[in-house]
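Co-fold these.
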Amino acid sequence: MEIRVVRDVLEKNRRVAWKVRERCRRDRHSLLNLMSAPGSGKTSLLEKLIPLLVARGLRPAVIEGDVETTNDSERLAPLGIPVAHVCTGRLGGACHIPANVILAALDEFRPGEADCVIIENVGNLVCPAEVDTGADADLVMVSVTEGEDKPLKYPMAFRRAALALVSKADLAAAAGCDLGLLEANIRAVNPDLPVLRVSVRDGSGLEDLAGRVEALHRRALGA
Amino acid sequence: MEIRVVRDVLEKNRRVAWKVRERCRRDRHSLLNLMSAPGSGKTSLLEKLIPLLVARGLRPAVIEGDVETTNDSERLAPLGIPVAHVCTGRLGGACHIPANVILAALDEFRPGEADCVIIENVGNLVCPAEVDTGADADLVMVSVTEGEDKPLKYPMAFRRAALALVSKADLAAAAGCDLGLLEANIRAVNPDLPVLRVSVRDGSGLEDLAGRVEALHRRALGA
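Predicted complex below.
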């Protein structure tokens, strides 16, 4: 009985996700969805990535998802880009951003002001991976401090992603993380998934990441 | 409409959670629920905590929740205690352990073989905090590598917990974590919540933790 209800909701969400995709094509912008556990460093990454995307001629915007607080949007404010904040706690304590909320968030942007919209999903490796936002591509991130087994234990996000990021790479030695094992576990779940090590602290991998995000953006626009 | 459905499911779960509590009292064991984000170190903590509880004369058992894999139960096997494993992915990709699954997991233990059952919930700071397992007390853990703001952004688990743990305390300096700020943010969400720093690597805080777990256990049994 409960499973039937969940299936209905997910099926309805899937239909709305396709409306999101149609709308993104009509408005000529890409939509990328960044997922990770809480504290893997999504907002810190965006603070560094956004200026690199701007330098490449893109006009990024961000949809920020948080259960509570607008802390993350406030952190992005100095970047001067459009940010739409979604407080999922007001949607009934939601642990992810469903497609209908993405539709509403896109209304917050003025027509044409952004050509690359990035969703920072709620910090959660389970539910966001089950609920299609309507994004053109998903990025999944895991930090070196979370343990090498996380891709095996939370495989869904890694299965659907177009790019995996290993964050806080500068902390690998201090955290005792075997980077080779972590990346082998990502490949065990999804052999075709490109994996990129990044560090917001020392800047490594960020320019490479900007290039890959630009490529995903161009692929979404068919350019 | 969808919100009404979610409320129905949560209301039904709440009734089952009280059945869990009645059963725990009948079978004369406590039930504690450990929650954190993925990779905060729940399993590593249990590997060190269980022997300390045994040394105090308790007979612990563990209900292990994972979306996929039985890795965590395999890690606990050398401890020689009863472990019941819940693969929530087979329940429809579930991001938490509902009370009816706890009831089923308790059936896996022989009558009287455990007096302190610990749930290692799915790594997720959102859904497990919304869905009552039927536990007598909740423990919430956050690692120093996740950022000081996590209690503010994921407050629900901290609001309902009886004890908060700050894990990987030995990594605080390397991760650039301001422990005072992290703990102030926990108190901002729940001023009465005791906070304990622990490190599985250097052992700090673990004996203190065992004492607090024993106290929660005794309180649940009314002893």
